[in-house]
Amino acid sequence: VQQLSGMLTELFQRARLEKPGQVDPRAAEYTVSLLAAMYDRSGTGYIKTRSAAAALIALSGDTLLAKYKAFFQFYAVPDGKVALITRSALRSLLTDLNQIPAIVGESCALSCVEIATQSCFHGVLNSAIVEEKFLSWLKSEPAVLLWLPTCYRLSATEMVSHQARCR
Questions:
Q1: Distances (CA, A) of 22 to 13, 19, 118, 151
Q2: Could you list the pLDDT tens digit for every one of the 167 residues in the chain?
Q3: How many structural domains does the chain have?
């Protein structure tokens, strides 16, 4: 948690320099607090790097496709010339991502993660899938992660302005 705090402090300091007045001075503190509430409920002082990365990617302002590709990069394993994501890695990713809605009381049961994993691997004979199959599955908006594209769309529409006037 201390290392994560240091990295986030540096990250938000750079962001404050790039966008003066737009980054709260306590952003790193708030983010570490959120990550600890999601991934260190027992107060051990440790958060898995992959879990923190998944949350930061999910909560970033990047496009959905960029987020999905980053998830694959963090959870996939190299297999020769390609990277693959295994069933267990997908379960880990979904479990990590489900801590985000869980923090506001909107989590699903572990059976949701298993059902989603089975749907992603439906018709797949191998123990792992390539990025294309993974991205295709995510683009179908599986129920277990429906909150992610929904939040993305909500944040994307915040900047929309229409030139129409109401009466």
A1: 11, 6, 42, 20
A2: 999 999 999 999 999 999 888 899 999 999 999 999 999 989 999 999 999 999 999 999 899 999 999 999 999 999 889 999 999 999 999 999 999 998 888 877 768 899 999 999 998 888 899 999 999 999 999 989 999 988 888 888 877 777 887 77
A3: 2
Residues 6+ away with beta carbon under 8 Å from 123: none
Please report, for the domain that includes residue 70, its CATH number: 1.10.238.10
- Same domain, yes or no, for 119 and 81? yes
